[in-house]
Amino acid sequence: MKQQQATPQRPDRTSPGSLEDIGDVIDVEQAEAALVEHYPRLVRLAYLVLPPGPSRGRRVLAAHAVVQRTLPRQRSSTRGLGLPAQRAGTDAAIDAGYAFVRLRVLRAALAAGRSRRWLPVPPPPFPQVWGLRLFPRSGGADELALDQALSALSGPGRAAFVLRDLERLSAPETRRVLEAAGVAHPREALDEAERATTPAGSRDRSLLESPEFDPCALQARPTDLIRRRQHGRAVLTAGVAVLVCGALLGMPGDGWGPDGAAAPTYARNAAAEAALDPGKLAVTSATAWKNAARQDFSAWPARGDRIHDKALLRRALAVWARPGAGVPVSATPGTPSGPAAGPAQLLFAGVVDHVVVVLMHDGLRVVRYAEAADGEGQSDGTGAAVDFARTDGATADSASALVVSRTQGNVRYLTAPWVKSARLVDLVKPDARGGRLRIGADGTTDPVPTPLPAATCTTWPALRMGGHLLTDLGELTPARLTYGTPRKPGGVTTPRARTAWARTACQLAAVRGQGVRAVNSWEFAHQPLPGGAGSAAWLCTRAETWRGPGSRTMAQIQTPAAGGRPYAAGTVAARAEGGTACGPRAPRALAGVLWKSATGQWWLLAAGSSQVRSITTTGDVHGQSPGRLLTLPAKSGYRAELRGRLANGKSMGAVG
Known about the structure:
This protein is α+β, with helices and mostly antiparallel strands and 656 residues long. Helices cover 22% and strands 25% of the residues. Residues 1-23, 80-94, 118-126, 240-257 and 376-381 have low confidence and may be disordered.
């Protein structure tokens, strides 16, 4: 059943406003009322316009300080501020005082960005919260990509982007507000905002209005409680307390600082300490894969320009074992996110797309650690993230590539050492040859577009790599696509296989983020259509996961495409989660669908795989077919229950 997604309500449009109806002077009381009423909105605006700072927590405090300091000390004149004339009707400004305060907030945020002055420690003139660390809630991949896109803009560019997408001002209105805020080249700032590459969804403002960018909806975590206690004792006991602090806060190796965004440790364990030692990371030679008994991730060499950076590797291992409160952690379904049982294997360490990335493998999982290139090593978790993906039982065909970077609608892969070439293809255009994809000396590819959502599916990028067809399903490991019988799936190489996948590709959106290892599509029947309308192909598509359970199965019918669209998507007849249908343990299928002919007549079409000897239908449509194809007249909205009789006499139900 399709569910309509409710459109989130947004605040009424607020124009830049004019002060003409209240004169040329703003009272302090009026400015204060506007500031208090719209305080969360103003702080969000300041937070988005401020440049990326040393940490998200200090950026939050700076945003609050900017807004609170915008309250004028006395009545202020509005002359010379460049505010546009007030509009009438439904587009009238809801609060001219808000327009005035917003302009002051924008000026202050831009000035702070130009001077790069950040919160001192402690910050006497700024809001203070002693004993707590405050930071916004972490969002998903889209919010992170949008934040990176905003970070790449100049201060005026960010201001133009926020005024347009958060405040919903038109281009002329945005330009006038920027001029009033002191931006020297507002038109260039607006053009820069237009060119910004943002993730899908940011244009409907759902991302800018998400908790990721709400400095008023904060998470609170204590500072280092043990260290604070020991510092208090140090006032009384001087040098003795210093030794106590060192004993309590000390860590294996280089201590607290080098572990970056990791949480504090409370126990010592020999195996755990070995897993945290960067000197014990396994490093495979560049040629070991040629003689390896098994070509999987364990045969990959360590690559990247930071594989000898012990401080970076120590941080990555420590955050893997103990991610701090401010570190986003993601894991594919069924993947444990705990520490390694022992020393892991290093696959990659380097800078990719302005992010420091470390890829490691512990035999069961691939772990990706990432931190901001301009803020590495910070203890508050700024810019750090950890992703886990299960990869146990990988073979050469499922260990061809790993995602090393994902940003702004593109993904970069780290390829296996045995992959010498790659070609970018479009699944929905099977006749196109595609283009060659460059693989760098460190094994990383050029950016590859990520597939679009199903609602706008006009293209589906995939890679032909090492003899295999791979596609991105939003995880660290791309999924391999195959075609053929469940027990002997093959490559997508023949015209028939490419055509089948061209009409199936857009259905892959249903299995994104499910820990999918491989997806096989299998044509189990071919059925003539009533009235000489041609013939239809019945396909069963099954997505297998790395963990075993959680498979997804889909039966679809691909009828002759009309309107000059030979590769239009097929019609899904049934879906199933789990089970063995269309898999190697049960390589058989049965499915049915209501189909409307060109004359307006409805038909019940059903088909089974080669093991099916007869089909029976009950419910609104009664009938039986002695073979594995069934065609009966029906009406719109009819429901039917299908049962198939196998060659061994057993009965089977339809997929789903």
